[in-house]
Amino acid sequence: MADSRILNQEVVADLRASDSELDSLIVWLDEQTPRPGLENLGERLSDLSIDVGELRSKIASNQNEYCRNILARTDAYELIAILWTPGQDTPIHDHRGSDCAFVILDGLSTETIYELDQSGRALPVSRRIYQPGEVCAADEPDIHRISNDTDSELLNLHVYTPPLGGFRMYDAAE
Ligand SMILES: [Fe+2]
Domain containing 89: what range? Predict the structure, then answer.
């Protein structure tokens, strides 16, 4: 479903040394106690100018499933660079106890929002395409799916607070 990798901490240290924006984001995240609120997080992510080329050169993709590259994880948050090759998508899911916010770094990110019908299956109710620099934020109960519907890679930088413990998946009603 997804390939999850914890980035080597030396690689993360190199990235932080060469990209002060990424470094200051992690410093800021470490300072938020007990954890960043979703609104603050959204604002913080929208102000970022990450060195996308440098980050991309240090993270993995997977041709079979989208790839989660975990940059940092504490009890309060996790920071993950997620890469989708063309046509890849997440399952339809919620966030079970975690807020989620992400900024689009490269490519176009499609978010489809769902509501449950009476039999508990997910009906799509809206869809939005996010451009690089735009931030998408989801409260715990929101049900959505992220997809790369383009012919190019999609790279997003996600923060989950607290770290995603597990999430529920849903069957599409379509
Ligand atoms: Fe999500």
Answer: 2-161
Calculate how far, in angstroms, residue 20's C-alpha sits from the geometric centre of ligand 1: 27
- Counted domains in the chain: 1
Expressed in angstroms and rounded, the spacing between residue 72 Cα and the centre of ligand 1 is 18
**Alpha-helical runs (H) found in the chain:** 9-18, 20-31, 38-46, 52-58
Residue 11 domain-assigned (yes or no): yes
Q: Residue 101 sits in a domain of what CATH number? A: 2.60.120.10
Distance in Å, CA 92 to ligand 1 centroid: 8
Q: Are strands 99-106 and 109-116 parallel, antiparallel or unpaired?
A: unpaired
Which pLDDT belongs to residue 174? Answer: 64
Q: 58 CA to middle of ligand 1, Å? A: 23
For range 112-122, the mean pLDDT: 94
